Amino acid sequence: MKADVVEQSLYEVRKAIHPRAVRGWFAAWRWLLVWGTQLVFYGTAWLQWNGRQALLFDIAHRKFYIFGLVFWPQDVIYLTVLLIICALSLFLFTAVAGRLWCGYACPQTVYTEIFMWIERRIEGDRNARIKLDKEGLSSRKFFLRGSKHLVWVLLALWTGFTFVGYVTPIRELWGEVMTLATGPWESFWILFYGFATYGNAGWMREQVCLHMCPYARFQSAMFDKDTLIITYDKARGEPRGKGEGSGDCVDCSICVQVCPTGIDIRDGLQYQCIGCAACIDGCNQVMDKVGKPQKLIRYSTTHALEGKPTRILRPRVLIYAAILAGVAIAACATLYLRVPLKVDVIRDRASIAREVEGGQVENVYRLQIMNTTESARVYEIAVAGLQTLQIATAPRVLVGPTDSLMVPVRVRAEAGLVAAGTHKILFSVRAADDESVAVQEKSVFIVR
Fold first, then answer.
1. pLDDT value for 213
2. Which residue, 56, 202, 237, 393, could crosslink 247 as a Cys pair with Cβ 3.0–4.6 Å?
3. 3-state DSSP helix/strand/coil percent for the chain, to nearest 5?
4. Among 381, 401, 413, 304, which residue's Cα sits nearest to residue 51?
């Protein structure tokens, strides 16, 4: 007999998840983080500092303004250090308290929370949305869905506009938007980030956390039995039910209904859990209604559930904390001692060395002097390293605030007193009003 052929799809069809609204201590914390992060993101772009935007990454002019600090491309090391600090912080917080970042402050979580709030305000809570999904197309359904997506699109475009406002001065960008005069790149990135926000928070939601974010896949490498995670107390909750001999879990499935990724935390720790604690708030409400103690689902550790003591200060935590503290202290010290002046010395290739009047040998250089302060400054140029070495051009130059100036410098030495060959010299550039603002750069002086 011919065996029956069974066809199986390799791709799981996404099932719509309609999280139920929940109130509680952790929900309040989550919304506090939503308000905090969005006030910072949308508000900081409009802050002014010394007559300019306080936080501006001016890529076109290769300057990065962070309140009172001005960074140039040569300061990319600070960006590297910042990324290292963020990575180490994530490792440390995850080892101690699990996926707190994912559950409370990740942009995907924050914007999904905002978009779901809009959805609930327009379409209703979970049961109303499920019922609306099952309805056929009608004027009411078209109006509700259209209104929801319209608000989503407007919020997404405002998010894209704000994001671009950190690269193009946002007040200028607003004027361009109002007059439909935005450039092609500004228009593209506003639409791109708007589309990304709309798609990720409105449509993909949990799919981003489950399939696109790599953090869920490697988090287990940072977890151990002392990591604080969301847990279900099986010893207390099982067997589930409402009758005689049942545990505290009444099998109401509220914990599943409120979960933004649609998992059942009672099945144990899963990579889909983002640590948002919505299930804790939902379960606590049910426990209050049935007259049983809260914390059937709670933040705890595997060791605590096993009746063993939990260790917060353990080797991996101490190592992460020590490295993080060391990097952070070094970064702060370097930033504090940072000299607000940068100098690059470039030899003039068109004229390596030449004899000039008076029996002198002359080399020509170009000094790029970058003033990283927000006030104009006069700088004095000096050179040392050879006998009779002197500068034949003006030794003082004026550089505007946060400006760069390419200065041609002619350096001469007595030919008879310097041997032929290549000699090391040292350029010094110092602020005329502050001797502590000084930079030295090496170069070579060639005598034929």
1. 87
2. 237
3. 45, 20, 35
4. 401
Distance of CA 114 to the CA centre of its chain: 19
Structural domains of the chain sorted by starting position, each given as residue range(s) with its CATH number in brackets: 25-220 (no CATH), 224-305 (no CATH), 341-447 (2.60.40.10)
Give percent of the chain above pLDDT 90: 72
Token digits of residue 178: 């109002």
Percent of the chain with pLDDT over 70: 97
CA atoms of 283 and 293, how far apart (whole Å): 10
Q: CB–CB of 235/243 below 8 Å?
A: no
Per-residue pLDDT averaged across 222-230, rounded? 90
**59 phi and psi, to 5 degrees?**
-65, -35
Amino acid letter, 126 = R
Which residue stretches of 98-125 are H helix?
A: 100, 107-123
CB 301: neighbour CB atoms within 10 A?
22
Enclosing H/E stretch for 322: helix 315-336
Tokens of 306: 């096993």
The H or E element that residue 398 is part of is strand 396-399
Distance CA(260)–CA(197), nearest Å, equals 17
**Which tokens is 282 given?**
């939902």
SS3 142: helix
Closest CA to 443 of 340, 344, 341, 342: 344
